[in-house]
Design brief:
Strand content: 15-25%
Mean pLDDT: 90
Shape: globular
Number of strands: 21
Helix content: 25-40%
Distance between the termini: 22 Å
Low-confidence stretches: 1-27, 377-382, 502-507
Structural class: alpha+beta
Number of helices: 21
Largest sheet: 7 strands, antiparallel
Radius of gyration: 22 Å
Strand order of the largest sheet: 1-20-19-15-14-9-8
């Protein structure tokens, strides 16, 4: 049985420090976690604890990532789960290879534009049974990664053991976090029928609300018995137990009984795919990210543009610094919105989009004195978890897992505990749109795990949740570490910004944390930015994390975001 409380002294101290600082007035100023052998960072301390124990018991980085992923799917249900998707960057220290797994689900065989048009929809609903139109890919990613690690890395623990923490927390419960309580309250807002009011779905109410219709409060024990039984099947039978057996049957039966689309064939034919990572050079490092159908090339495009500026000379935290990255983001997003979809359906010119010449051309369009105004409004994005692992042998994993909006489609498949994602609601019903709906297609994904290499090996394993904010926060972390020499934790905690719009907003704005000096805020406004000052350490900015590997000493430096519930833990 999973030894829930028998962690190492280092792990325990790191978790205590996390809880102590999270309770503080600013929830910040944590020390960077340092360890000689291995490091884990996740957005929930129980997942970090589960992963580090796997490493202490001899498992490899992928084993630990599977333990973290499955645990996060239980203890952070508003942000991710086994009804969603994931993407993996995996560095194999034995072979020196960086590989990538695309475990995002495809739209169902019955998912057509005509299906929605005939029901009177002009766009795919964000919530409900018809929003759950793509197969959940997460477990296929766990299995594909695990099989690869067992074969090529060695030191692999038994599959079933990796799921023990998740099963334990689902069956016996875990203390509800402030984050879960908060986002549950937000999503039972009866005045917002399109995006919220999730209690109208009976299974959602049965799982996530108490008998009085209220969310579980911070500190109250939260159990998910149906999800525990589902995870037990997966622990025993692997991914096939999810995609080709009784679980798939239950999910499909519930969907089809309520007008949903997915079929048993959709589940049985789903598979995760190995793809080639993409990269650009940045200040002597190589930045790697995920290819389409994710926005990884937008994250790289921002760095490709910044290469043509002396970022260090601008000064960190100045109006010039913020202005430049926001303007680079606008240019990168313009390319993204023009091209991003499933590359099996559209030929995306990645080599051109990430070329130095194209980066220079985009850089030349930036006016350092004035914000660009002729930018298409950006669409809202959702919530996610990023986590990273580096083991004692130097294997490294960067993973993102998501259900799209908070609580995804809002649909918990009856008798399974599986909260289904609504990622497919981002498909367009305009047949001329690059990301229009077609059967068997993967939609535009915001998810993009990242790594930065030095001399052919991982130097920085990093990423964040936060939809539109992911490329921007990745740029913040890289520039603050590479250009300005910040520690990992300081780079994560430093004031952040978000160019984009949130759900239901009519136009873009630029959200900037209140810790940014007033004079900088005013200068940004003077340059034409529609600035909205938001609270310090707001989780609107996402939950970032990073692990830096010192190339000389091999010491690992880990950081976790005070905006979330996470911890960096090492041994």
């Amino acid at each position: 049985m999973f030894r829930r409380f028998q962690t190492s002294v280092a792990a325990t101290l790191a978790i205590v420090m996390t809880l102590f600082t999270a309770a503080g007035a600013n929830a910040a100023n944590r020390p960077t976690t340092m360890a000689p052998h291995a490091m884990v960072t996740t957005p929930h301390y129980l997942a970090s604890q589960a992963a580090i124990q796997v490493l202490e018991e001899g498992g490899n980085a992928i084993d630990a990532a599977v333990a973290a992923a499955s645990t996060l799917g239980v203890v952070y249900p508003h942000m991710n789960g086994i009804g969603g998707d994931n993407f993996w960057l995996i560095y194999n220290a034995k072979t020196g290879e960086l590989k990538a797994i695309n475990a995002s689900g495809r739209s169902g065989e019955k998912a057509t534009i005509d299906f929605y048009k005939e029901q009177g929809f002009e766009k795919i609903p964000s919530r409900g049974y018809v929003a759950a139109n793509t197969v959940p890919g997460a477990i296929s990613g766990w299995q594909e990664a695990y099989d690869y690690g067992k074969k090529s890395m060695g030191n692999s623990l038994p599959w079933h053991k990796l799921l023990e923490p998740a099963i334990d927390y689902a069956e016996n419960g875990y203390p509800t976090t402030f984050s879960q309580e908060h986002w549950t309250r937000v999503n039972i807002d009866e005045t917002d029928k399109e995006f919220r009011d999730l209690q109208r779905f009976s299974e959602f109410a049965d799982v996530f609300l108490k008998e009085n219709g209220q969310p579980y409060a911070e500190g109250e024990l939260f159990k998910q018995p149906d999800l525990a039984e589902t995870l037990k099947v997966v622990a025993k039978k692997g991914a096939d137990g999810f995609y080709k057996g009784e679980i798939a049957q239950k999910i499909v039966d519930d969907l089809q009984a309520n007008g949903g689309l997915l079929t048993l064939k959709d589940f049985a034919e789903h598979k995760a795919n190995w793809v080639d990572p993409i990269s650009v050079e940045y200040r002597g490092y190589t930045a790697y990210n995920f290819p389409p159908n994710t926005q990884g090339f937008a994250s790289l495009s921002i760095l490709n543009i910044l290469n043509h500026f002396d970022v260090k000379e601008l000064g960190e935290g100045t109006a010039d610094y913020y202005h430049l990255i926001v303007e680079a983001t606008k240019q990168a997003f313009a390319d993204r919105d023009k091209w991003l979809t499933d590359p099996e359906f559209v030929d995306i010119p990645l080599d051109e989009l990430l070329s130095k010449e194209h980066g220079k051309a985009l850089a030349d369009r930036i006016d350092m004195d004035r914000a660009a105004a002729d930018v298409e409004p950006l669409d809202p994005k959702g919530d996610t978890v990023w986590f990273g692992v580096v083991d004692k042998d130097g294997n490294a994993v960067s993973v993102i897992q998501s259900i799209y909006h908070e609580f995804g489609s809002g649909i918990v498949a009856k008798d399974t505990g599986v909260l289904l994602q609504n990622r497919g609601s981002f498909f367009s019903l305009d047949p001329e749109h690059v990301n229009h709906l077609e059967p068997g297609k993967r939609t535009f994904h915001t998810l993009n795990p990242a790594m930065l290499f030095q001399n052919g090996k991982p130097y920085l394993v990093y990423g964040t949740m936060g939809g539109e904010g992911q490329p921007q926060t990745q740029a913040a972390i890289v520039t603050r570490i590479v250009d300005f020499g910040f520690s990992v934790q300081d780079a994560i905690e430093a004031p952040r910004w978000l160019h984009g719009r949130t759900w239901g907003a009519a136009s873009n704005d630029l959200k900037m944390e209140g810790r940014i000096p007033d004079e900088v805020i005013q200068e940004m406004k003077d340059r034409g930015h529609p600035v909205k000052v938001v609270e310090d350490y707001t989780d609107t900015m996402g939950h970032a994390g990073a692990i830096l590997i010192d190339p000389d000493t091999n010491i690992k430096y880990g950081g976790a975001d005070p905006r979330g519930d996470g911890a960096a833990v090492g041994y």
